[in-house]
Write a structure and sequence with these properties.
alpha+beta
Length: about 220
């Protein structure tokens, strides 16, 4: 029997193509879709990028993130790999990040993050199978992680019509967020404590664990 394909919950699959994005301008009000539905906006009224919803169909497109599953995982603080609740203790919620501690003295304190957190059992699997994390990773407990805004494409009107001008991260209270089509929810990481990775060493049963992750990763 072939081994199951392991893909993080937030990963986009080839069977989830881009859906039509008929972006239009509402004069003085921002962007909208020509055929907009209530589900196209989040609870704060920001327009989101559309994507098919068929997780597990086709091949996982590693490196591409499904916008709505990312939003759900970030909003509910779910593990980005298996969609179970992220690990949490008195020190905070668990994140597994690329190691950029050289960027500033207290990194990642104050960083805007688009990667959802993780649960402890998914840490060793991620470290072993993710090429980016194998180049350097760090586990972090985060005491406070408020929603800071959204990342997406900002549009502007000019003489030729509506044009995409830049990708940006904007807080929800920024007036320009009306002109943004979001693709990721952003949380700010505060009160961060770096943990030794060997605290999450894999403990046997890897094949069974990977099978379980592969099944759970298909949930929306």
């Amino acid at each position: 029997m072939p081994r199951p394909v392991i893909a993080p919950y937030i990963t986009r699959w080839s069977g989830e193509p881009d859906l039509p994005q008929p972006v239009r301008a509402r004069p003085g009000l921002g962007v909208c879709y020509a055929d907009e539905l209530p589900i196209d906006r989040d609870s704060r009224g920001v327009l989101w990028r559309r994507a098919g919803m068929r997780p597990g169909t086709g091949r996982p497109e590693f490196g591409r993130v499904h916008p709505l599953r990312q939003r759900r995982a970030m909003r509910r603080l779910l593990c980005q790999v298996c969609a179970a609740p992220a690990d949490r203790d008195d020190s905070g919620v668990l994140w597994l990040l690329r190691d950029f501690r050289g960027d500033w003295a207290r990194w990642p304190d104050g960083m805007g993050c688009v990667e959802p957190p993780v649960c402890a059992p998914c840490v060793p699997v991620s470290l072993r199978l993710c090429p980016a994390l194998r180049r350097g990773a760090v586990a972090v407990r985060v005491q406070d992680c408020p929603i800071a805004g959204v990342r997406g494409v900002v549009y502007r009107e000019d003489f030729s019509g509506l044009v995409a001008v830049e990708e940006a991260v904007l807080p929800y209270d920024d007036p320009d967020v009306r002109w943004l089509v979001a693709s990721a929810l952003v949380r700010e990481l505060r009160g961060c404590t770096v943990l030794p990775l060997d605290a999450f060493a894999e403990r046997g049963g890897a094949d069974g664990e990977e099978l379980d992750l592969a099944v759970r990763a298909d949930r929306f």
